[in-house]
Please model this.
Amino acid sequence: MTPGRRSSTFTRLLRHGFTDPSAAERLLDGPELAPVRDDPVLLEALGATADPDLALLGLARLLEAQDGPTAHRELLDTLIAAKPLRDRLLGILGASTALADHLARHPSDWQALVTYEPHDLHPGVAEFERGLAEATDPISLRVAYRRCLLSIAARDVCGTTDVAETAAELADLATATLRTALALAERDAPEDAAACRLAVIAMGKCGGHELNYVSDVDVIFVAEPTEGTPEPKALGSATRLASHLMRICSETTVEGSIWPVDANLRPEGRNGPLVRTLSSHLAYYQRWAKTWEFQALLKARPVAGDADLGRAYIDALGPLVWKAAERENFVTDVQKMRRRVVENIPAAEIDRELKLGPGGLRDVEFAVQLLQLVHGRTDAALRSGSTLDALQALAAGGYVGREDAARLAEAYRFLRSLEHRIQLFRLRRTHLVPEAEADQRRLGRSLGLRTDPVDGLNREWRRHTGVVRRLHEKLFYRPLLDAVAQLAPGEARLSPEAARERMVALGYADPAAALRHLEALASGVTRKAAIQRTLLPVLLGWFADSADPDAGLLNFRKVSDALGKTPWYLRLLRDEGAAAENLARVLSAGRLAPDLLMRAPEAVALLGDGDGGGLAPRSRTALEQEIVAAVGRAGSAAQGVTAARGVRRRELFRTAAADIVGSYGTETNPAEADQGALVDRVGAAVSDLTKATLAGTLSAVVRDGWGDTLPTRFAIIGMGRFGGHELGYGSDADVLFVHEPQDGVDEHEASAAANKVVAEMRRLLQLPSADPPLLIDADLRPEGKTGPLVRTLKSYEAYYRRWSLVWESQALLRAEPVAGDEDLGRRFIELIDPLRHPATGLTDESVREIRRLKARMESERLPRGADPKLHTKLGPGGLSDVEWTVQLLQLRHGHREAGLRTTRTRRALAAAREAGLLSAEHTETLDEAWVLATRVRNAVMLVRGRAGDTFPTEPRELAAVGRYLGYGAGHAGDMLDAYRRTARRARAVVEELFYAD
Model:
């Protein structure tokens, strides 16, 4: 061969898409292809395949396998002369190494492709049964199955059939295969066949007429005894036949396997009997089935065995499928199952997962099935097992927008086509887009992307998954707006009844009111209404993910009514990614945060990503500076404290919103895993805010009554949870007041001034207003409620020296200066340190006194009728148990262990462990119980808008507490069980540490 000729051939091969022209030249020069090596028709046809190199290699192998020169010449002549065969055969060889291997093993099977012309479209089950009729055993069945598969793949790669038609043909071939396998099983066990009537019900993609090239074929078996056969015997016979059928299809032989037959969708899954009678199936679905099991039955279709029994199965179970949407938490259950599927994908695969990943095939299927279950009970036109047929019916009925349905169908077709091409290559079950460039090049070319197949494939794949991600959830909500928004005529819409059904399915208790809210928000042709119509489909989904969707939507309408005319509000929700979801979570999580927001709706700005400050807590210094500055601008103490309370309201909203968002999680940020961190953030934020508010209030009162200088130095000491940086949303501020007369000031004058300051501070902070009150509790002072509200430092010293009781030493463990004269606060701490950290520890009598006090408190203060096991403060394993145990350790060992000299419970626990006073296990048990009890109290306040120490009894409120604590819909009982379990373990530790001698 001359160099010029080689160069010319080499160039032509490159031009036709070969990536290894040298290897291709060698094959063309070989004896099998020499007669046609220069035929331009052949090169043109090879260049049109997905992988010309692979197609040429497969053709060479097929020619080499022919039985003699005559067969070899017949194949070559037909290949060159008959374009339909040429396109189909080379198309298969360029797309599938597995089918090329089959042709090499069975070299005459290429003739199965000769008889098919474009007008011979869409063979059905009967044609495939004829194609399998000669199979007499599992091996010959596999050969016949692959021969039939050749014809399906040929029509597919040549574009004779589209992806939906190909999937339907694959399902019909599976049906014919199941029937043939059952016939073989019955032939081998005629006595079993005579003893029972067995029906095979296809599920999943086979049942839906949308099967992949390689997929498990999901089935359910149902059987009845023949006349005169006892039921147990009949079920045994049917089970043997079903098992044999599964082995015939699934077992690996010299010809490989066909596909696994999977019966795990049956009642009780793999733990349940393989075969049941119809009445047994019906009883299970009526009593025990979960929501997903009814979802699976959407695609149920009798395919083999006793046809009458198969129809009876569908007739009996069909009505139950269409009642599934009436089940409590239906939509939540379906969506949760979808999220669980995504969470189980390995992190390394999620970006390549075509079926289960975000924006993948399963998103489309779940969205369509959800709508079918909601509306199919009243509209039989929606009861299709095929995703694309159901999507078309949903659009025709106005259940989804036509444009959305068309875009979703286009994306689904592309993704299914890509899935088909990936599986066809090696006939292996996979849904991962390959990473190798050669594989992506072949896939791109097979989908018609010839100019730049690799980049084109990735671009189209990402575009279509992006469409699915944007649309699949909105598909459920957007038509609700079209039903009420009075848009342009001509588009089919949800009927009022269908809209009501959908709202009920979403969990709305008052669908009529919810639809009125939607109408008020989305109707009209204004820019505001247009933006609302864009936002609401997403917001409705987030509301539905809460325990009280009605409240979420109502609160959103209230905020929108209040801020609708401001230019930034809707722009914030539309343009700043986190703002809309954060707002939806906050508005539907309970009463406290929405109530705080309604009093100053402009605080919505805090929920955004931009310059509104976000949800990060502000420092005490920044808060105090803002409040003192606001007080300084006010004309009176009342106005100054009003300003301080306004800042407090806004910052309480910031803290509550951050807590809710962190507890619920968002689409981009999962829920905070560290529950202790959430508790610490809330406690620190509310405590700092309370300190700043008291500082501002003190400044306002002093300035209004005395100008620049109060006649006495004055300090506020935080006590209890306030001193411990552990305040909750509904906590009072436990404090002590201490003063010291200025030099030269009469003590009576100083005392009168100090008392007036305290009285005025308490009055102004509790005045009725739109802002939540701040209650100041001074009951931990010497002599309790009967003692003076304010004492001088010397008076405290005298009292503690002569009269102090052990409970007061315990209370002082959490004392910390929070406002006022810093030097006086520091000297007060120096005064009490020997009391709360006694140099000799505690006497035995003091320990017994502490135990007596605790026992009396538990018996006297627990509310009548309360369940002690669920009381977060005084119940066993609750806050009191943990805190008193920690404080006993502090009193006993604080003088020598510096780490114990802290006002914070969790830090003291960690210090006790570091000092060897607590085991790691005991520390973890007590910490977990304390954090959980604190979280429950915070949740109750967020949900109910008022403080409480026990779980709510109203179901929606209890569910909302559960949602905040990470429990999904319908799992309130699990939450209560978990609390009891945690508290019980903590109580056992308390018994060992607090009460043991």
